[in-house]
Amino acid sequence: xxxxxxxxxRPKPVATEAAAADYSGLDAWPAGAILAAITASNRRAVEAxxxxxxELELAALGIEERLRAGGRLIYVGAGTSGRLGLQDAxxxxxxxxxxxxxxxxxxxxxxxxxxxxxxxxxxxxAVHDVDAAGVGARDAVVGIAASGxxxxxxxxxxxxxxxxxxxxxxxxxxxxxxxxxxxxGVLLETGPEVLAGSTRLAAGTAQKAALNALSTTALVRxxxxxxxxxxxxxxxxxxxxxxxxxxxAQGAGVSEAAAAAAQEAAGGDIRCAIVSAKxxxxxxxxxxxxxxxxxxxRSALDGLRAG
Length: 307
Hints:
Largest sheet: 5 strands, parallel
Strand order of the largest sheet: 4-3-5-6-7
Order of helices and strands: EEHHEHEHEHEHEHHHHHH
CATH superfamily of the largest domain: Glucose-6-phosphate isomerase like protein, domain 1
Number of strands: 7
Distance between the termini: 58 Å
CATH architecture of the largest domain: 3-Layer(aba) Sandwich
Structural class: alpha/beta
Number of helices: 12
Helix content: 40-55%
Low-confidence stretches: 1-11
CATH topology of the largest domain: Rossmann fold
């Protein structure tokens, strides 16, 4: 990342790039002291996320609205920030059964495993990638950048907003374009890094925590959970099949033997198995009621009780 952004023709310092006196002489510190400093900075990173809960709530509700209407969740970023978005997007399918999440990463697929720092300045590529992804009014776009001024990310969010998408910007420095351009700006003010300018540390920790909170909140509210159980999880291996039975047993309030039978009858569909076992209805009825209620277990059960 650039160590400053230009404002009024003069460079403005970026806090996440500053060399803090607290960490002077870091290279000569004992290993335990370095570990303690990094751990303390990560603790402050989580505190920065806590301070941003009001803005994260606005962002989560906006994302929920677009996804409820059938839209997608699209992350945009460069370097560490982009790869954190990529990780969160990849984990939503196995956790919630949600497949409509993707990431526009500066530098494309090659940047997933190898840094391509120059790509973050490519504004034309950002606009191209947003258009190629078919971003539109039903989508939610979340841009992430520690500096808050990464040209690729800011341009992508600006263009997505112009196309009607709901937009969120997450940055670790105040008064930056990524907080000003989108519908909701989320400041995670983590300050200088232990290793000056290495925003994969505290800034990255805060971004990861914020993305976890943001996507989980939206998808839980959309029916990705019943109680605090992962009912959208896909039991695709032996470990997850065992976990699925336990989820059905707890969610339906039945024995594991009964849960296993319900899970088998439902073809591995945890939501369907819970509704069938808890309400005492056939798999066919459970599946139909779930379809009527947007695959939301609580709503489906309430519908059956009301009926």
